[in-house]
Request: fold
Amino acid sequence: MEPGNGTPDSGVKERLQSLQNRMCGLEAEHGRDVRSTHLLAVSKRHPVDRIREAYAAGQRLFGENFVQEALAKQRELGDCAIEWHFIGAIQSNKSADIARHFSWVHTLASAKVARRLSAARPPELAPLNILIQINISGESSKQGIEAADAPELVRLVSQLPQLRYRGLMTLPALAESEAEQRHAFSALRELAIAMPAPFDTLSMGTSHDYAAAIAEGSTMVRLGTAIFGPRPMK
Ligand SMILES: *Cc1c(COP(=O)(O)O)cnc(C)c1O
Reply:
């Protein structure tokens, strides 16, 4: 499908292709199976035409941060077989919309929201895939729960009927050196292994630190800027 209405081709296809190549190179370099890391395209604040451009290039997983914006895009893109991931902060009054309109949530951080999501997930849909967001770099980040509180929430998610626990997510504080970046990501991986339920997903790595994340075993990198360029202002 062509990008609509005179929107110039923005190079999304070429950037997606070179990112996929780079990801395969990193996987091989670190002794991992090639294509064991999924690419989630983070489309927040980017227009629907850009999403269509990525979709036409074969991209199927998209992440959004704001419920209203995401629902409007989903309506416009109803003809596309997109798997939608919610990666923004969850306001509890929006949890029913999230439970109905997304396949994955990366940012669960409370028991209250876990119960609401499960209760609001329509029974005819598959259970909502859940990643618990961990505040891995301590005081420097405000989002996610502390590592010490994670096992209890993992247990709850595993028991709720309309949720499916898949693993952990983190958005660490910006670190300059690759060594610092890797430190945070390896801490998340070790935490996931120590949880009381099996996991298959580590959502870690953004445009500026995905190489370190893949080195430490990320199975899903969340890339916005690297695919779509700088985000337009609101
Ligand atoms: C915006 C966002 C991203 C993407 O960030 P980029 O630097 O544009 O790649 C990834 N994860 C989360 C949680 C985000 O909010």
Summary: Residues 42, 44, 65, 87, 171, 206-208, 222-226 surround pyridoxal-5'-phosphate (CB under 6 Å).
